[in-house]
Design goal:
Blueprint lengths: L8 H7 L27 H6 L4 H7 L2 H27 L9 H27 L1 H14 L13 H28 L6 H27 L4 H23 L1 H9 L14 H9 L4 H6 L2 H9 L1
Bound molecules: fe (ii) ion (2 copies).
One fe (ii) ion (FE2) binds next to α8.
Length: about 300
């Protein structure tokens, strides 16, 4: 590896992984059940993200809100998969590895998966589709996820990997939450997240291996992870508010009835304690410091 990284022996181990964790885009997702009922982001999950669950239910537009949230997730995932692909493709500072190649190939399939579900959502509501897409572009523009290093190459590498790692662990966590929800989740949507999480678990190992191989002091890591956690919370808070903003713009008569919600306390709690975020915590020690303070 280039000078930024030590050469971790664990990377060679990762490269010897069997690839039977991979899903088949056609066979492993119940695409034939796209029209079956079920929520995309049920109220129990929305509550943990700080959404105004009562206001949404009282508005009589819970299905439209759910549709907006589904579109947001598709868009958010597609954009971040693109960031990942761009980062690993031909990056001269990263020694080529089999794990990085798998990661890139799988992200291409993930983009296809979420594009397919997004198209289904757009086809479901042709009367709102065009405006919803324009709103998503305005409220959650591509490039919003571009990592902001603090200027030096080491900072850029840490920031990029930790952003990717936290996002990938979040995708696994979202599946955990959907799967545990007491409400009925749309079956094809649940399959999409199950399959995606199954591959992301492996990507998380790869990301964490690269972060841990960075030549970075403990003190520096604590300071950089503090900056990252502040950015992450601000960024996710903003993102989780997008569906309410979309709903209010699509149905202006609801203005005032649905609030933008509160900070996503459940997301922060998961970040601090859930096994789904174990690697993010291992690579962002400021989270450990925060967890201690909250005890
Ligand atoms: Fe992915
Ligand atoms: Fe991934």
């Amino acid at each position: 590896m280039a000078d930024l990284y030590t050469t971790p022996t664990s990377l060679a181990e990762l490269d010897r992984r069997a690839t039977d964790y991979r899903y088949d885009l056609e066979a492993d997702i119940r695409w034939s059940e796209l029209a079956a009922p079920g929520a995309l982001v049920p109220p129990s999950v929305l509550a943990s993200l700080g959404a105004d669950v009562a206001g949404i239910a009282a508005s009589g537009q819970a299905e439209l809100y759910d549709w907006c949230f589904g579109l947001l997730i598709c868009q958010h995932f597609i954009e971040l998969e693109r960031v990942v692909i761009k980062w690993v493709k031909g990056n001269p500072a990263l020694a080529p590895s089999q794990s990085l190649e798998w990661l890139r190939d799988e992200e291409i399939k993930h983009i296809q998966t979420f594009r397919r579900y997004r198209q289904h959502l757009l086809d479901q509501r042709p009367e709102d589709a065009e405006q919803a897409q324009a709103l998503l572009h305005e409220l959650h523009p591509p490039g919003h996820f571009q990592p902001e290093g603090d200027g030096d190459l080491l900072g850029l590498h840490y920031w990029t990997w930790i952003t990717i790692l936290a996002f990938e662990e979040y995708t696994v966590h979202l599946y955990t939450a959907l799967n545990a929800a007491p409400e009925t989740v749309q079956p094809a949507w649940l399959d999409v997240h199950r399959c995606h999480a199954q591959e992301e678990v492996c990507h998380v190992e790869t990301d964490a291996t690269y972060v841990k191989a960075l030549e970075i002091s403990e003190e520096d890591l604590l300071a950089r992870s503090k900056l990252f956690v502040s950015w992450l919370m601000a960024s996710y808070t903003k993102t989780f508010r997008v569906p309410a903003q979309m709903l209010r713009r699509l149905r202006p008569e609801l203005e005032g009835q649905v609030s933008l919600g509160k900070p996503p306390k459940g997301f922060l709690d998961a970040l601090l304690t859930s096994p789904d975020f174990a690697q993010t915590r291992a690579c962002a020690p400021y989270l450990g410091w925060l967890a201690e303070r909250k005890r």
